[in-house]
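#structure-requests
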Amino acid sequence: MADGREKEKRRVPVILLSGFLGVGKTTMLRNLLQNTTKRVACIVNDVASINIDSKLVSNRVTGTTKDLVDTIELQNGCVCCSLRDELFVSLRKLLVRAKRKRKRYDFVVVENSGVAEPSNIRDQFHEASLLHQLLLRRIYLKTMVTVVDSCRFFDEYYSRDTILERPDLGQGGSLPVVDLLIQQVECADLVVLNKSDLMERDGGGESAMGRLQECVHTLNPLAKILVATNGEIPFDDCLLNEDEDKNALMARITNEGMIRGCVSAAASKHHHGQGEEGGYHNRYGITSWVYQRRRPFHRSGSQRR
């Protein structure tokens, strides 16, 4: 066990930053680069032909932090689909660059495009691990962070639009807005409720923030939730320090796939041996059915008769 921990310490942690366009991902990354004393590598993904986010990040890297940060741009596609292979290629490039400089990165931050499906990237790391890819001897996926706009969360949660109809949230996606929002929250180890000051300014107050926290906790009861203004969070404490909390550990393991598998198995048709079909119903009058919905049930609604 100790040997395994030592090996993990020698690997470079990768932090995945997800969320819709405009929620404050780039601002959060810029704050990190401005305030950190650690050596950081960034992979900034933009589906547009010009990677605006990367330019914004690079402009922040000045003075004492300039020598601590390396940045790679991924543009004209999304790392979770069309640029899927490019993510690992870029990670290899960064490791080669670090070796050439005789430096070691303390961590790598991957800023996803607004329409990225983070579960696809998590699965990519998992598949690479199963295939014993050599790259994973040098890096590992440590923390998946999702940033949401506190003021707009419920508008998007109840939206019937698709991403194609909402270019303000990101370009190139086809999922319903609510499905992508829920997936981004479900996959996260850490959910940052950004722009909390704007919620207070708009008259939402503590009750609105409490409702938002309750909803996010329902979607992902194992994730850590932080309330932030201007993307300011205690980065080292939240992203890099080892968390002994069992819930945080379970969030990294992620039970989403197991839950969906159980629901799928229960909902699918299955066959008994001859003479066993419908045995429980015939013997005891027991029947079952499965109702699936991505949005969580409202407690008061489910208690109505």
